[in-house]
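Priority: medium. Attachment 1 of 2:
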């Protein structure tokens, strides 16, 4: 019985050590990719801020300004771009995003444009209407893809296919903290300030302020999507790194506990053998 127990414990130790090697390797891979993803996420923020400031300046410059991207209409249908992960083993990264997105869409007639394998699988499993299921990889999604998606969604918004456009993504706060968020992209909301309006009214746009504005809006949506993709990718890698680090530590604790049990079983077996030898000699 003792020998059988020792053998089982030894096999269990080898199994945990093998798993620990995998989690360590995944942690190192996530750490190496995280630095580049974090830098990309930080570099996209000035681009978005510049586009948003330009749109605000155009809107402020004309008191009679009107654009379909600013008009609020009766909400009959909503569209949401949901950016999830390509793989699992990232703690609650994907599940937290799904909960936040479904909570924001609750009670609404909505459709989803999923980005990432897990997002596509989630929509397919739930039977949610998808605009497109071709964007299976967040890591391989480029700036050109984001602008293509933005032009498609902006065109459908103008045609009335849906009345509001959102993006569900995960905001990268720090290495240990990632927060899911749902941000409204269309229609664009701004508050007109009278003082700023008078100051900006001297600017002129050709052929017209509305034409320039309507041309820039898809670029704005594309920049916003690109920033959300960069934030989500950095968040996924950060969550995976944290999860794999915790798994490696747990594996180390399990190995220590199993080693202690193995040594106790081995000591018990040796004691039993000595007792049997002594008993045989006395007999």
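Attachment 2 of 2:
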């Amino acid at each position: 019985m003792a020998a059988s127990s020792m053998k089982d414990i030894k096999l269990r130790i080898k199994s945990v050590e093998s798993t620990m090697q995998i989690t360590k390797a995944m942690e190192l891979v996530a750490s190496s990719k995280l630095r580049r993803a974090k830098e990309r996420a930080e570099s996209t923020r000035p681009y978005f801020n510049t586009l948003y400031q330009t749109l605000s300046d155009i809107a402020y410059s004309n008191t009679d300004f009107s654009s379909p991207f600013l008009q609020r209409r009766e909400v009959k249908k909503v569209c949401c771009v949901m950016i999830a992960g390509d793989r699992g083993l990232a703690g609650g990264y994907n599940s937290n995003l799904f909960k936040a997105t479904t909570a924001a869409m609750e009670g609404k007639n909505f459709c989803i444009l999923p980005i990432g394998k897990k997002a596509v699988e989630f929509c397919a499993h739930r039977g949610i209407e998808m605009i497109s299921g071709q964007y299976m990889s967040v890591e391989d999604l480029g700036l050109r893809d984001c602008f293509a998606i933005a032009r498609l969604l902006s065109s459908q918004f103008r045609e009335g296919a849906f009345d509001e456009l959102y993006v569900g993504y995960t905001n990268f706060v720090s290495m240990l903290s990632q927060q899911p968020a749902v941000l409204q992209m269309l229609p664009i909301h701004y508050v007109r300030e009278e003082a700023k309006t008078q100051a900006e009214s001297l600017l002129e746009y050709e052929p017209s302020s509305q034409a320039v504005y309507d041309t820039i809006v898809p670029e704005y949506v594309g920049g916003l999507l690109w920033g959300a993709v960069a934030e989500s990718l950095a968040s996924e890698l950060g969550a995976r790194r944290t999860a794999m680090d915790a798994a490696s530590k747990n594996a180390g604790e399990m190995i220590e506990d199993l080693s202690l049990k193995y040594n106790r079983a081995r000591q018990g077996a040796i004691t039993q053998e000595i007792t049997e030898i002594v008993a045989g000699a006395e007999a």
